[in-house]
Design goal:
single chain; 679 residues; mainly alpha; two-stranded parallel sheet; 7 strands
């Protein structure tokens, strides 16, 4: 079907002026004309002297642009009774006045060609970017397509993009006008953020009104996504002043040296630590600030990178401080290591290869979230809430393995899938989880460093947390434990939003907007949605919290900095984790394979469906080193957990009673009793 050849404007004036324009050629000629003019100007003026453009001319140009855009924005809001989204108007609503303003906006895009001319004439080559050329060369073509598709049945939804862009251009050209005379603009630092916000709002608008104008909304969303991708590097790039200040501060207080010993070779990973995907803390945990004090961490390296041989090639490119000692290597052969014995065998067996299992599991979990919302919308609130809570917990298990790289085997793809699952379907933050969980694996069960142990004042799993827990909680520890788990999801929701906005993660903000739209599409009734969430969130919190508590909280816990570094990586991980129902396929499905917690900590990047295949190898390895092997039933793990909670609470209550008898402070706050929290 060929596109219409004439512009349909809906009013006599616009039809008279623009009826002779052939849109098919106008759309294509717009970009070709711009490219031709820019090429001609660039080749002509590249070798010419810099042209002087007076300040008064620049001021008039910028003020004119700001004034026209302000007039368009205000007039458009008045023409549509301030409803520039078109959502409140009936589908047949149409405003000829709005159409005229759209055409004024299109004409201003032609006037904006002067921006490029000014850049070339003044030899401001740093401003002649690919993003600038792409935007100015395509925006006119896009708006011609919009004007050509303006139909009465689609109402006034096209006006939102014009309104948002006009408002942003008011700020932009006002800033340019002030910059002509060197007047400082307090809004300068947020201009790029305002532009990115414009793109996000227009994307959200296109998703909301997709059914009203699907072709336009797809065009709108695709173009805004392209612009957002182009502007994000500018948003996150520090200014020259802040960069100089950062460099000066870094040179004044340099980060401590970090040395790592892998296979007997000592590497300097100080510079690489800031770029390490798992974070600097894992390298600091495994390495040392002194070459002589470095411990062999080949097992740790194999655990996190055993799936990717490319990591070994990258490690070989790091600066070598001390080559391997042949005599030391010969003596080290007598000590069994996971990197020598287990990882090569697992690679040969294909246990690190991708499987379809996690992909299917993720799809089912995400489908369960939508099914729960739809059931809640249809009136089955309880059933829908239960399915929603269970599915969100399963999404949590799935994103956990994707975050470790246990999915398709490509780090970038796994991270993208994790963001889709955890941000869009659950509404949390994948970046927050990776930051927090890296600390957990680096400092497993270290009080003050492993953030998962910070459970006070709701429940206490160690004496440090018990000192910060109220007495009424310690008297009924199991009841408060369940209550704390039921609030975990709500607390997680708040914490992740604070993290996203504090870190300015624009891509995760976009994902959260899609999360809101997806949930509202699946359950458009606010009442049913709130009822389903009231059931699902506590259920999800108890589900996820119990799975983690059973495998970690009953194990030995040490204060930060007090661990024995002479113990190998595998032995240290097994000391802080517990397997329960290890041979049960049902338990593996229910708990997302995290009942095999020892296997997960030893090989976190392995696809979880292969944990059972390496279980015997790990147990045999631990027995050969004299390390204990802990495996209990599900009921046994629950009994251990409840007994541990009761034991910690009873011990703290006895301590407080003894302190009262001795007339001393029952809650000392000295540094010796409270572990320092890692910054």
């Amino acid at each position: 079907m060929s596109p219409p050849s004439r512009l349909v404007c809906g009013d006599r004036m616009s039809d008279t002026v623009y009826a002779s324009i052939d849109v098919f050629w106008a759309q294509r000629s717009f970009a070709l004309f711009y490219v031709a003019v820019v090429t001609l100007l660039y080749t002509t003026m590249r070798a010419s002297p810099r042209m002087y453009i007076g300040k008064k001319r620049l001021l008039v140009y910028n003020v004119m642009n700001a004034g026209v855009n302000m007039w368009v924005a205000v007039s458009l809001a008045l023409a549509l009774d301030v409803d520039v989204t078109g959502g409140a108007a009936p589908p047949s609503a149409y405003s000829p006045r709005a159409m005229q303003l759209v055409w004024v906006h299109i004409c201003m895009k032609v006037v904006d060609f002067c921006d490029t001319f000014i850049i070339i004439a003044t030899h401001s080559w740093h401003r002649l970017s690919i993003l600038h050329l792409f935007h100015h060369g395509t925006i006119g073509m896009v708006w011609l397509a919009v004007a050509n598709g303006w139909q009465e049945r689609q109402g006034n939804i096209f006006a939102f993009g014009v309104f948002a862009n006009s408002v942003v251009h008011v700020f932009m050209y006002t800033h340019y006008a002030l910059a002509v005379y060197g007047i400082p603009n307090p809004m300068k630092r947020v201009l790029t953020a305002v532009q990115c916000t414009q793109f996000i709002l227009i994307i959200f608008h296109g998703v909301v009104f997709f059914e009203r104008a699907p072709v336009f909304c797809v065009l709108e969303c695709l173009y805004m996504v392209a612009m957002l991708v182009g502007f994000l590097p500018i948003l996150v790039r520090p200014s020259s002043t802040s960069s100089r200040a950062t460099i000066a501060s870094r040179s004044a207080t340099r980060a401590p040296k970090v040395f790592l010993r892998i296979g007997g070779v000592v590497y300097d990973v100080t510079l690489f630590s800031s770029k390490h995907p798992g974070g600097r803390e894992i390298l600091e945990s495994a390495g040392s600030s002194s070459v002589d004090d470095t411990q062999e961490c080949a097992d740790l390296f194999a655990a996190f990178h055993g799936r990717w041989p490319r990591a070994e090639r990258l490690a070989a490119m790091l600066p070598v401080i001390q080559p391997a000692d042949a005599d030391a290597l010969r003596s080290a052969v007598r000590t069994p290591t996971m990197s020598d014995q287990l990882v090569p065998a697992w690679r040969r067996a294909g246990l690190f290869n991708s499987t379809i299992h996690l992909t299917l599991w993720t799809m089912i979990a995400c489908g369960g979230v939508l099914a729960g919302l739809r059931l809640a919308f249809s009136g089955h609130v309880v059933i829908g809430g239960v399915i929603l809570g269970v599915s969100m917990a399963q999404c949590g298990f799935a994103q956990h393995h994707l975050g470790h790289g246990g999915g398709v085997g490509r780090r970038g793809v796994d991270i993208a899938l994790q963001t889709l699952v955890f941000n869009v379907f659950v509404g949390a933050s994948a970046q927050w989880w990776r930051t927090k969980h890296s600390r957990h694996h680096a400092f497993t069960n270290e009080i003050g460093a492993d953030g998962d142990l910070d459970t006070a004042p709701f429940v206490a799993f160690n004496m440090f947390a018990a000192k910060q827990t109220p007495g009424f909680v310690l008297r009924y520890p199991k009841m408060w434990f369940v209550a704390a788990l039921s609030l975990y999801s709500a607390e997680l929701w708040v914490r992740t939003k604070r993290f996203i906005f504090n870190e300015r993660l624009v891509h995760e903000v976009v994902a959260l907007l899609f999360h809101a739209q997806l949930w509202w599409w699946a359950c458009p009734s606010a009442y049913h949605l709130l009822c389903a969430v009231a059931i699902a969130y506590p259920l999800q919190g108890v589900y996820l919290g119990l799975a983690f508590s059973l495998s970690h909280f009953t194990m030995p816990q040490t204060a930060e900095g007090c661990r024995d570094n002479s113990v190998g990586w595998v032995q240290r991980q097994s000391a802080g984790t517990l397997d329960f129902a290890a041979k049960s396929a049902v338990a593996a499905a229910v708990f997302g394979y995290l009942n095999l917690q020892v296997e997960h900590h030893v090989a976190p990047c392995m696809p979880p469906s292969n944990y059972s295949a390496i279980s015997k190898d790990i147990r045999d390895f631990l027995r050969s080193t004299g390390a204990p092997v802990r495996d209990v039933s599900l009921l046994g793990a629950i009994r251990l957990l409840t007994a541990h909670i009761d034991h910690v609470a009873a011990a703290e209550l006895r301590r407080r009673a003894a302190a009262r008898l001795a007339n001393t402070d029952p809650n000392p706050s000295s540094e010796s009793n409270t572990p320092k929290r890692r910054a």
